User: Fold this.
Amino acid sequence: MQPVLAELLTIGDEILYGQIVDTNSQWMSSVLSEAGIRVIRKTSVGDREDEILTALAEAEQRADVILITGGLGPTNDDLTKPCLVKYFNSRLTMNEEALAEVTAFFKSRGRELTELNRQQAALPANCTKITNALGTAPGMWFHERGRVFVSMPGVPHEMKRMMKETIIPKLQQTFSLPVIHHLMIRTVGIGESFLADKIKPWEKKLPPHIKLAYLPSLGEVKLRLTGTGSSKEVLQQETEKLAKELEPLAGEYIYGYGGDPLEVVIGQLLRSRKLTLSIAESCTGGYLSHLITSVPGSSDYFLGSMIPYAYEIKMRQLGVKPETLEKYGAVSEPTIHEMANIVRAKFNTDIGVATSGIAGPGGATLEKPVGQIWIAYSDKHKTVTRKLQISNDRMINIRMASMAVLNLIRLNLPPA
Assistant:
């Protein structure tokens, strides 16, 4: 079965100026993939006729389906409709059904239909109108030269309604679509190149219809298996079997499958084992607590945290021994060991974790450079410490140290 390829074209100066974020393309890519259509390119152009026409011509050479958003408003800077008329050598005609819909839209809101808004019902003669249930600008479907072009409003909720109710079903009727199935394997505690080296024998044996992609981000690497075929059930079975075969090579780094990030998985583990957590974080400044509490229901297992940033707060409020700080400093194994144990005792939790380090850009010494961070995990059976050397970037250090603590929890939780 031949793949059906799509290109997304977003139109508007506001996107190129960075005044709005193009969330439409991300959402459209997701629903198209679910329908079996593979997005091969996303293009953004400004409100210029020559750029729009060039983008349409280039997209037609690459894709079977060209989905366009933006530029359908009633003002002079909205050029999508006149450009489509010119591109297809068509003409504008008043679409009576569209006119009735836009008239009813304004009447329902007690507003007068102006001539400017009336012109939104004038559509290219060669298009099929797509009803806009939530706005005044109809969508337009063109089936020309063996390609499908669809123009939609750039307003996200209007576009999404059109896609779900009309465009996706119509594409499914127009094309014989393969099934595309994704399985996400989430890993933590290993870099992309090290992981690739570890799983090389497994990767080499992947069948031709299942592709592997590495998706690294701060603190973790996601592995995406994408299978293409005729049966979703078969692809699901195949990818799950491949994921099982991966476990002997990388099982210690795999923390989950699907969409749940590490903080959600940790929360599920703590809840299922009826364990409670407290945190003392210095260099991460509350970011670790933010990750934990971003999960709905985290009050089931997270009791609270302290941010003892200054020396005197570490001593007076948390309770780290003055002699420990004087002899070893705040960024040291003895200090982080005490911090994790003390916060666990103070909050009377099953687990206590702690962070202390040089987030940067200042505060470093030859012995303790920027990016050196100590983390610790404590429960009633043991206390585990780790020294990290991350980067020269403050926010990267904060984020990766927090992820490292979550992973430390995962690796050291008492068995269920």
